[in-house]
């Protein structure tokens, strides 16, 4: 008799499934898609008043803000955890990475000073392991250029005969 009772209890538990307050886990699935990245770059220089260029396009004079955008392809795996009624779904991400890079080069120039540049790679600023595709991510950074005076040759003096 005890074997029949045990079998009945197992059958009821199996048929009932998870309790209402438990989360339902989905299997890991591959994803590939675009995420949208927006970066506000506050460009400063010492001394201020330098012209700012983004890949040869004039953007303003320091201090100024340059907005960068990218939509790189991101691939990886995600698992959805469906919360009970009224809760919100959560995601676990693994093996997430970008395909390729999106570099932007900022240049600053000021009369009497050496021109300087700095390259920002969007994918290094936004770590892929924390991102989902089809989402917008935004950040702000400050880039400060320490300008160095240009070493000009001394003016030549006219030789007297």
Please describe the topology of this protein.
Elements lengths: L1 H15 L7 E2 L3 E6 L1 E11 L4 E4 L2 E5 L2 E7 L2 E10 L7 E10 L3 E7 L6 E6 H4 L10 E11 L15
Organism: anaerobic digester metagenome
InterPro entries: PEGA
Protein name: PEGA domain protein
Helix count from the secondary structure assignment:
2
Kindly report the oligomeric state of this protein.
single chain
Span of the ends, CA to CA: 129 Å
Any idea how many domains? 1
* Class from helix and strand fractions: mainly beta
Radius of gyration from CA coordinates: 29 Å
- Helices and strands, in order, run as HEEEEEEEEEEHE
Ranges where pLDDT stays below 50 over 5 or more residues in a row are 6-21
Mean of the pLDDT scores? Answer: 79
In terms of DSSP E residues, the strand content is over 45%
Global geometry: elongated
| Helix content range | 10-25%
Largest sheet report: 4 strands, antiparallel
* Strand count: 11
């Amino acid at each position: 008799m005890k074997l029949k009772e045990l079998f009945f209890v197992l059958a009821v538990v199996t048929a009932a499934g998870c309790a209402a307050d438990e989360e339902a886990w989905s299997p890991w699935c591959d994803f590939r898609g675009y995420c949208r990245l927006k970066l506000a770059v506050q460009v400063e220089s010492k001394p201020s008043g330098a012209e700012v260029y983004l890949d040869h396009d004039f953007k303003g004079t320091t201090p100024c803000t340059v907005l960068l955008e990218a939509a790189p392809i991101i691939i990886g795996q995600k698992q959805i955890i469906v919360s009970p009624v009224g809760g919100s779904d959560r995601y676990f991400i693994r093996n997430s990475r970008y395909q390729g890079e999106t570099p932007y080069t900022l240049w600053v120039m000021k009369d009497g000073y050496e021109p300087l540049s700095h390259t920002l790679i969007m994918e290094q600023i936004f770590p892929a392991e924390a991102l989902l595709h089809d989402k917008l991510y935004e950040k702000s950074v400050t880039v400060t250029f320490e300008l160095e005076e240009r070493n000009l040759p001394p003016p030549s003096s006219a030789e007297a005969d």
